[in-house]
Amino acid sequence: MSRQEDVVDELRLLRERTVGITDCLVSTADGMLVAADSTGIQPESVAALGSVALGLAKRTAAAVGLGSLREVVTRCQSGYVVVYGIGENALLILLGDEGLNTVSLHAQSRQSIEQLAKLLDIRLA
Amino acid sequence: MSGSGADRDWSAFSSTTALEGVLRQAHYERFTGRLAAPGSVGVEICLVDGLVTAILTPAAPGPDSVLLRSGRVSQVEWSRAVDTAGEHGRLDETLVSRSLVHGGELDVVRISALFDAMFAVCLDAPEDWEAQPPESGIEPPLPLVPGIPPALLLTEADRRSTTLSRRWGSPAQLARTRPHVTAKATQAGTSAIERHREILLCANGRRTPRDIAFVLGRGVYAVMTDLGRLENRGMVQIKEQAAPATLPSVAPRRIEAASQATTVLPEHAVPEQLPRRVQQTAARAEGMTPYQGFDRTRAGDYPPS
Amino acid sequence: MSDLAASISRVLDGEGILASMLVDATTSLVYGFAGEGALLPDPDESTELVQLLVESLHEAGGNGELESLIVTTSQCHYLTHVVPRHRGDDLLLVTVADRARTNLALADRAMAVQAGSVLA
User: Fold this and answer.
1) Chain B interface with A: residues with Cβ < 8 Å
2) How far apart are CA B24 and CA B259, in angstroms?
3) Residue in A8, A10, A75, A101 to test binding to B, most B beta-carbons within 10 Å
4) A17-31, pLDDT tens digit by residue?
């Protein structure tokens, strides 16, 4: 399997083992789509928006001095958009429905982020 | 005809699981608060006076999801109603007073969601439960007060599992499948009723029955029932899902069989106090529950002989 | 008494009506009933019958939605009316009437009206 396929596979595994996730994608830190396991959305647009959201959140976190940013959770009436950094160079973006449990999501995502970091040769802090 | 069934004989249950035991005790003690499953994924059963008013679980859409996703209430109208009702206000009264939903319709939606959530929780019921005070978690948006006696919810969940097993197979397995529409369904000349057409549009091989239920704003059991029918007609293929390659790190903890005796109440024994920090309410809530149990075993022959 | 329970009880106002229940046509959950419950048909069988009819009608190319179904036995009329809903799975108002005391046409008309207002 190519690395691209490995990444998509890891995204699929994350989605399948976490109740409520509907779509997953990985993008570069500046919003270029790397890989997506999604349907019915425009992953390129979501990747771009995700990077803007994370970038803004990081600057906010730095400005208020409350420690490093963990994730950005955008909560909507009918679902969630969650953005995690994969090291400094990439992002993991998840879309979920309103049944998503964010507590267990974070634990599942940590696992995937480690795996994705290996696949993408990214060093995690 | 029997009444609400609140004092139903609990020995009717074929086995006493940890969930049944803890609900029986909560009902007996007229518990007000939440039963949460710490090892499991965000499941909370809210009770007032020993009656279940809401169940929060990722496994089934709540009444708010059903109303929004089905399109009965628009996002804008909902937000406005939530704002008007305020944090501890009565959202249900606001929805009705604004003519967004009729009172009877709202009752049906809440009752339906409650039974559906209990069914979904029972498909993979956690073994560890802990009692918590009522204010310990997210406020359920549309609780049903007075609530439903836990025995009725469990009996119905049991009935649904049995019916599904008879018609299709293991409900827990069905819950893990990701059905996809078949070629036959898209052929000219093949048609389906609207309710089934909606499911066919959602069955893309990615979504589990629970996911489809969320998208459509319908119950998980209703979707599963319809999927079974669609499979019989060859319009959907229900793929068995193998266990994911990487084991989840927060899988519900399973008590070893040997220690189960300590968590399961012996039948008919007077329950011991649940360890908790909340005061018992002395009197049961006045007024009748909107839901009255219907004893199916006593229903007549149809048509009568 | 809740709105729903009150609405279902009102069905018994009709002449010769013995019992009534509000059932979910997909899950066969009984939302409420009034009167002599033992006279009501099994909810599963009621919904199964309606489902078969709806699917058969559809396949046969029938236009329109099922509104009601009447089964008459030597003793009773079983009237099933689909409750109109803005959205949401169909509900059925299933009523048993004493044949000796009921004019079927009037009862059917009355049940249609009741079905229309049971969720109000």
Assistant:
1) 41-42, 57-61, 65, 68-69, 75, 78-79, 204, 206, 210-211, 214-215, 241, 244-246, 248-250
2) 20
3) A101
4) 999 999 999 999 999
C79-114 in b/e burial notation, b at 16+ Cβ within 10 A? bbbbbeeeebbbbbbbbbbeeeebeeeebbebbbeb
Structural domain boundaries, residue A50: 3-119
Range list of H helices, chain B = 18-28, 63-69, 75-85, 91-97, 103-123, 150-167, 171-176, 183-186, 194-202, 209-216, 220-232, 260-263
Count of domains forming chain A: 1
Is A24 within a domain? yes
C16-67 pLDDT per residue, tens = 999 999 999 999 999 999 999 999 999 999 999 999 999 888 888 877 788 9
Average pLDDT over residues B178-201: 87
> Cβ of C46 under 8 Å from any chain B Cβ?
yes
Strand order in B44-48's β-sheet? Answer: B51-56, B44-48, B33-36, B130-132
Indicate yes or no: CB of B78 within 8 angstroms of CB of A101.
Answer: no
What is the chain B residue with the closest CA to A102?
A: B42
Which residue is closest to B247 within chain A, CA to CA? Answer: A17
Chain B: nearest CA to A24, how far in angstroms?
12
Starting at the edge strand found earlier in the chain, the sheet holding A21-28 runs: A33-37, A21-28, A90-96, A79-86, A71-76
Q: Is residue B285 a contact partner of residue C32, using CB atoms and an 8 Å limit?
A: no
User: Is the full-model pTM beyond 0.90?
Assistant: no
* Position A124 in a domain: no
**CATH number, domain containing residue A97:** 3.30.450.30
Domain B168-237 has CATH 2.40.128: no
Domain positions in chain B: 14-159, 168-237
- Per the CB < 8 A criterion, the answer to whether C20 and C33 are in contact is yes
Q: Do A107 and B250 touch (CB under 8 A)?
A: yes
- Amino acid at site A72: V
Most A CBs within 10 A among B66, B206, B216, B240, hence the mutation to make, goes to B206
What's the residue count for chain B?
305
Residue B217 and residue B67 in contact, taking contact as beta carbons nearer than 8 Å: yes
Task: Please name the residue that has the structure tokens 């193998």.
Answer: B242
Chain A nearest-CA distance from B256, in A, is: 23
Q: For residue A125, tell me if it sits in a domain.
A: no
Q: What distance in Å separates the CA atoms of residue A39 and residue B203, rounded to the nearest whole number?
A: 12
3 state DSSP class of B47: strand
In a domain, A65, yes or no: yes
Domains of chain C and CATH, by start: 3-117 (3.30.450.30)
Q: Is C70 on the interface with B (CB under 8 A)?
A: no
